[in-house]
UniProtKB/TrEMBL annotation:
The keyword Nucleus does not apply. The keyword Transferase applies. Residues 11-209 form the Tetrapyrrole methylase domain. InterPro entries: 4pyrrol_Mease (IPR000878), 4pyrrol_Methylase_sf (IPR035996), 4pyrrole_Mease_sub1 (IPR014777), 4pyrrole_Mease_sub2 (IPR014776), Siro_Cobalamin_biosynth (IPR050161), Uropor_MeTrfase_CS (IPR003043). It comes from Desulfuromonas versatilis. This is Precorrin-4 C(11)-methyltransferase.
Length: 261
């Protein structure tokens, strides 16, 4: 496939976070303001409506790849174009192929990822020293794609904060795998439509969550729309842990103090 030649007009891939325009970076807002056409996945055309006034707004996932490239070529003749990228490019983004083809005509602007927004909403550090020593991002949809890939149960080890995107497992099965990995009942949060209309967060333990949710289909497993539901799963001990000031003082004595001297 032939890449676009370098020209003045650009395509901006703007990290749009979970969909709240208040989380757009200043750089992203400036780039968006200068674009005459914007590709906005649903429901971003609604949540960003005020910033999209007077612009041509399109949904990117209604096109095949070559159709999208052909349309971009025409739109670029008139000026800059933007894509509002859910979260940002870092994880589970479908826009990499477009960026590779566009080459120097593409500019990526970092955004507030859903994991960052969830951490802020829950008011929890995801790798809390002495509680969780690592945070792991995974999706059951992609686990097992390659021989020897770890299972969800193998990732859900004690001391791990696990963030699960695009879950496609029924909640009882998901909980069973997590309990097998953690070896105990740890806290779990279902963060549904974060920063969007219909926002809801269910916080419980692995022993409680199935009964608490009941028949509610947070993951869109029974609906006619095959797209993943906008529900992030966060599990791990850090969700219920509290800490005192000893860690702060340790860092004060071993790290920060020496930088001041």
């Amino acid at each position: 496939m032939i890449k676009f030649k370098t020209e003045e007009n650009q395509v901006f891939f703007i990290g749009a976070g979970p969909g709240d325009p208040d989380l757009l970076t200043l750089k992203g807002a400036r780039a968006l303001e200068g674009c005459h056409a914007v590709f906005a996945p649903t429901p971003y055309e609604e949540t960003f409506a005020q910033l999209l006034r007077g612009k041509q707004v399109l949904v990117p996932f209604g096109f095949y790849f070559q159709e999208l490239l052909d349309l971009l070529h025409k739109l670029l003749e008139k000026g800059d174009v933007a894509f509002l990228v859910p979260g940002d490019l870092t994880f589970y983004s479908p826009f990499q192929a477009l960026i590779d083809v566009l080459g120097t005509r593409a500019e990526v602007i970092a955004g507030v990822g859903t994991a960052n927004a969830a951490s802020a909403f829950l008011k929890k550090t995801l790798d809390l020293p002495g509680v969780c020593n690592r945070a792991v991002i995974a999706s059951p949809r992609t686990l097992g794609d390659q021989p020897g890939s770890p299972t969800l149960a193998e990732l859900a080890a004690p001391g791990v904060t696990l963030l699960i995107y695009m879950n496609n497992l029924p909640l009882p099965e998901l909980v069973a795998q997590l309990k097998k990995g953690y070896g105990k009942s740890v806290p779990i949060a279902l963060v549904h439509r974060l920063c969007l209309p219909g926002e809801e967060v269910v916080l419980a333990t692995l022993d409680e969550i199935v009964e608490q949710v009941g028949e509610r289909d947070f993951f869109n497993l029974t609906g006619t729309d095959r797209r993943p539901a906008l529900t992030l799963v966060v599990a791990g001990e850090t969700l219920s842990a509290t800490v005192d000031g000893s860690w702060w003082d340790f860092r004060r004595d071993t790290i920060w103090k020496f930088r001041e001297e």
